[in-house]
Amino acid sequence: MLLPVSQVSSIVNALNLTWLDKVYLNEIPNEDLDNTDTTVMLLQETDSSPAYHANSTFKGLAMGVEVQIFYKVDLEDDFNPIEAEIALLKALKDAGWLIVASQHHTTDPDTNQLTKTIYLTKNEMI
């Protein structure tokens, strides 16, 4: 079984999203921390707990992933982040992930980038 962040990364990469430049797992490399010329997604694991308890054991895992999107500063005038996010959420839902929370958009105080945070969960049998 792949790590939860790897599972989500595979789904996102398969979508070939034209608005997304890079997907990072666990952390953004230092050389890209202040880059505001690209739109990046950061995936971090939030849960990997035993699930489906029965007969004094567990038969699955409850997995969680935090998805953070950092939009490039100079977005195209015709780009609509909400429409892009809805398509992403639908694809993740179709792949078996439950959208637990989709936070409001914020502006990163250091880079002035529009950001979005989404929380996903999925229970999987082992």
User: How many β-strand stretches?
Assistant: 6
- Poorly predicted spans: none
- Please tally the helical runs, counting DSSP H or I stretches of 4 or more residues: 2
Name given to the CATH architecture: 2-Layer Sandwich
Number of domains: 1
Task: Give the SSE order as H and E letters.
Answer: HEEEHEEE
Shape designation: elongated
End-to-end span in angstroms? 8 Å
Tell me about the largest β-sheet. Answer: 6 strands, mixed
Structural class by helix and strand composition:
alpha+beta
Radius of gyration, CA atoms, in whole angstroms? 16 Å
CATH class: Alpha Beta
Strand content: 35-45%
Write the CATH homologous superfamily.
Phage tail protein-like
Q: Mean pLDDT, nearest integer? A: 95
Assign the CATH topology: STM4215-like
Pfam families: DUF806
InterPro entries: DUF806 (IPR008524)
Protein name: DUF806 family protein
Organism: Pediococcus pentosaceus (strain ATCC 25745 / CCUG 21536 / LMG 10740 / 183-1w)
